[in-house]
Structures are given as C-alpha cells and as structure tokens.
Amino acid sequence: MPRSKTQQQRKSRVQPAHAPRVSWSGMLRFGLVAFPVQAYSTAAPEGARIAFHQLHRECHSRIRYIKQCPIHGPVTKDEIVSGYEYSKGQYVEIEPSELDELRTDRERALTIDNFIDPDELDPLYLDGRSYYLTPDGTDAGEPYGVFLQALTRKKRYGIGQFVMSGREQVVLVRPYESVLTMEILRYASEVREPANLVGALPAIRSLDKKLRLAEQVIEQWVDDQFDFADYVDHYQNKVRELIEAKVEGKELVTPEAEDEPEVVNLMEALRRSVHRHGTKRSGSRRAAKPKRATTARHRAKGRKAS
C-alpha cells in the first residue's frame, strides 16, 4: 500500500540519531593524580522540549534576527569582536587568545581540591547543567575506575573548579551508577539570600492541630516504591498531539477540566487532603498507601486471629 503524503512528511521530519557531542575535554586532577576525561551533557536529545519559531502572521515567514552595526548594517560572524564597556559608549576590545593566555594549567584542568559528605551542599547551588564524565582514551580507564570506586566506597562528592564557556566554573563531581557526573554549581555570591523575601511567619505550636494534620498528609503520601521515571511531561505530550493534529488537518478534542472541591479554610483543606490520599494522583503517579493505616489494619487482623 503506497504511503500517504502526510506519512512521507512525518518520516522526513524524523532526524537520524547522532553521536553525543563532547561539551568539554581536559584533565581531571585530584592530589597528584591526573587523567584525561570528556564531558557529555546528561540531557537526552529525544527528551528535548518542543520549541516554537516566531512567524510573520501575514505570510508565515520565519522572523530572523540579524546582527548589524548601526553604521555599516549587517555584519558577518568574523567581523564581531568582544568588548567591555568601561565608560558610557567607550569599549576595550578583548581577543579570545588574550583570555586563553590568562588560564594556568591548573585552570585548564578540572581540579578537585575538596571532598564533602553528600548532605553538605544544598541543591539550591545546582544551576541545572549536568554532564557525564567519561575516560578519554584507554590509559585513562584505570585511574578513572579507581577514582569512581573510591568516591563510591567513601560516599563522598568532590568539589573543584575549571574554565568552561569562557568563565571559571565551580562544580560537584559525584558517582552515578557506573559513571562520574559533573554538576555545575552557582557561587555563593550568585545565590540570593531568602531573608528579605519571606516576612515574619506566625508561630506554630508543636501541638497545633493543623501541623499534626499536615504531618499526617505527608506521612500518608510517602511512596516506598518511588520511581522518578513515573513523572512524565504530560503537557509536552499534549502539545505534540496538538501539532500532529494540525499537520494532519484534524481537530483535537480537549478533555473537560476536572472540578476541584472548594476549600473554605486551611483546617478543612488539611482534613480533606487526609481523606483523599487513596484517590488517583495527578498524571501517571500511582497513589501510595498510607503506611500507618496499613500497619494498624494488619495488627487488628493479627489480634483477631489470635
């Protein structure tokens, strides 16, 4: 049976799989040990978010952003240099080679100079960029494996610095399964202090009923079989369905929104939360059974049997 035009178009939109691109390569150092590594982004291309282009509503042509000089008009990439504005309208030009000469051998390498307990660094300092570190060459396999195993056995993470993307980065290096990962961190000076964002909170007594109910909600929704893979991007899937429907000239039927029960006050919201722990959670998340209620039920059965 011959393929339809839509099927052929859809097939042409599928891009062939490419080998992952090396984001950085260099030496990893700890103590007097050094070995070459390569860094690959942990983000999977097939999991990338759907991106939209800006179009001209009238003719549907794609909007382009052209780099241009206000005096000479559009310029090519090789005509552009980096400059720092030291005074209004006054710039000093900096060549990439000049920046490269500022780096010492230590800064060119990923140097681990501190080891911490995994709980010592708050996730607040993670900036969202993470990479897999792999040995670069056969000779790097042994020191890489020794370092990975040592971190795993001692349950420690490494903290270090190196230069990437034109600036000195502070990073966290940790074992993950059978590989080293590198998480880019924010410097302490880059993290906003929360003190001025939250005003004075009301005092909550340890025996407050609202506090006890909130604790009960948390306890009941603990999942002993938690699997992060259960969380999927439902909205992304809906956007993809919408795009496919539009490409094929179909109309996508949107489901009716579920009505949330009206909650009058905090106490009522907490009580209802306790009673609805067995209902289906949002998305693909399965409902966790309350541990305390299950334990009590089993104990009651045990007493009856005896």
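Second entry:
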Amino acid sequence: MQFVLRALTRIPLPLLHAAGWLIYCVGFRIMGWRRVRAEHDLANAFPEKNAAQRASILQQTYRNLADGMMEAFWGYGASAQALKRRVAIENPEVVSHYWKEGRSVVLLAAHYGNWEWLLLTAGAQFGFPIDAVYQPLRVASVDAFVREARSRFGGKPIPHKEFIYTLMSRASQTRAYALIADQTPRQQEPKHWTRFLNQDTAFFKGAGKIARFLDAPVLFVTMRRVRRGYYTARLTVLAEPPYDESADTLIVERYARALEQAIREHPAEWLWVQKKWKYTKQSAAAQVRAKEKHSAAAGFSDS
C-alpha cells in the first residue's frame, strides 16, 4: 500500500488533476456522493440564492474536492520551494513576530481551500515546529504514510487522543499548534452553539482552553484559490492574552464569524460534504437531559 501511495507522489500535477476530473465525474455526476445532504445544507445556508446559483456552488465544491485530493498526493512528495511557489502566505510576519518573542501560537484553520498544502507550506515557510491535531486513519499503513508525509517540513501530526498529553509535555517549548476547527463535536461532548450560516451550529470549545493554558495568541488561517493548483493564505489575529474564563466562548465565536465571512465570499472553497450539521441543538439538549435522567435514576437505585 505504501509503495502505491509513494508512487502517486511522483506523478506530475497535471496528470493528477486529470485523475481528479474523473473522480469528480464519478463522485458528483454518477454516484452523487453525499449530494442530497450538501444540497440541503446549501439551501439552509444561502436562502437568498436561487437553485441554479446553489447548484453551481455545489458543482464547483466537488471539483475543488477532487482537485484537492489529487493535489495532496503531489504535495506529499513536493519540495519546499515547489510548495511555496504554489501557496503564497500573504502576511507571514503576523506569526513570525510571535516566534521571535518566544511565544507559542494557536493556528485555527478549516476544511477550506487546500488544507493539506497549508500545513506543508507553513512548515516550509516559517521554519518552526507545528503540532497539528488530526484524526488517525483506519488503515494503519495509510496513516503511517500520511503522518510521515505531513511531517517533512517540521509539521508534527498529533492524534487527537494524544494531544492533551503532548500539549502538557511541550508547554515550556515555543511551538505552533494547528487545529482544523470546523469539525462537529459528538453530541455528548462539550460544545458551543452559535448561529452560523443561518443555522444553529455546534463548535468545539477546545481552542480557547489551549490558548489559555499556553497564554498564546490565536490566529485564523484562511486560503483562497487563485487558479487551479495555486493558492494564497492569510493570517488574522482572533485573540491575544491576557485571557479570562470567557475566552473559550470568545475565541470560538470569533473563529465562527471569520470562517462564515470566508465562506460567504467564496462558498465553493468550503467542504460542504463534511456533514457539518449532524444533529440539531434540540436533539443534543434532549440527549443531555436523557443522560442526566439516567444518571439520577442510577444514583437512586444505588441508594
């Protein structure tokens, strides 16, 4: 398996883009993979757009996703210089000055643009270690390949279950901690609810806790596709210490607002097929009440 994956990194990008076109045709036009759900979410997010406009956004989303999948393989084998030619970081000084001061930073990104190239390019551009939280892949050989590829320029992919230990063990070191923060918490996990793209939406609260623990500034990183295979990335400061206990909510709110603005400006760049709205605020609340009721009943029976 790893031999096949490594071979893919040696294929020229134009050929990978051609393969991406086939993936798009099969996934979108033939199989309609997650298409119904994505159409539903787009309709809720952009009620002001007509059906043709939303259909155009969705079509381009699938094309971008197919390109991104193939571009990831190319990026796993590309040189630092090749990546920097294709991803221009507009304002690297925003994070560099924190590094010169010996301060760690928290970088919040999203499934927007080409997030695989973002980690690789940031490592090549900044030259300091970046610990990136990720969900391990089910196939061990594929997971090992991806972790190794993402680590080539100083990036350190950390499985989410190991992240707290890693964070505590490296707290005294100056590092960057990167999170793809638009994923949806499980219903039983702590979360923050906010209005996002016209819908009640759950976000993880962990970024604020990490920032408070490290006393670190939080930066939002967004990408914009200039043309096929070329991107720009921009850093925006969301929050800086000193923090109080309200920082958890403040940071996730500012992240949600920054991401929402980016999506409204370039909606096809976001990964609409990720099923962001897996459950409603009402169903999550009902589950919490049921859990509390069950716990109370168990405590009564034990007594």
